[in-house]
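Why does residue order matter? Because the sequence determines the fold. Keep that principle in mind as you read this record.
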Amino acid sequence: MIFAQVWRFVAPGLYHHERKALVPFVLLSTLCFLGGAGFGYIVVFPPAFRFLVSYSNDFLSAMPSVNEYFSLSLRLLIAFGAIFELPVFMVFLAKLGVVDAPFLSRNRKYAILISFIIAAILTPTPDVVNQVLMGGPLVILYEVSIVAVRVFVRKPLKTADDDLVET
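Structure:
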């Protein structure tokens, strides 16, 4: 809903060719976010919630409040929605000329390390299972990003700075 309001505010100020270039990014990023949120809710949320209530024993019973339940689920949905934006973000960076497919391939080992560091930071529970459930898709999404950059980016967009250098 918020994104729709932002788009309704920004779209009238764009030229037709700018709007035409942004529509695929908007649609793909929305689909990626919803897919990531769905993945987080269906695959990751059950183990995370089991971990949360696993602290119960004979003397202590876990009784999470509605606030804690919604907080956990909302954090997981937003985190997974955000990480599933990686391919769209990488294609956008490649269109700007910041990265390219050979650069991404050369730095794969650093991306794997950073993926698991991000997973350790973003997961709301400290267990390894949830960190792997986030780090694994991040690594897969990085590989998808490399393929997407090869397929969708033929050459970077020309900027105003490029015009100054040529003259």
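The longest helix spans residues 16-53.
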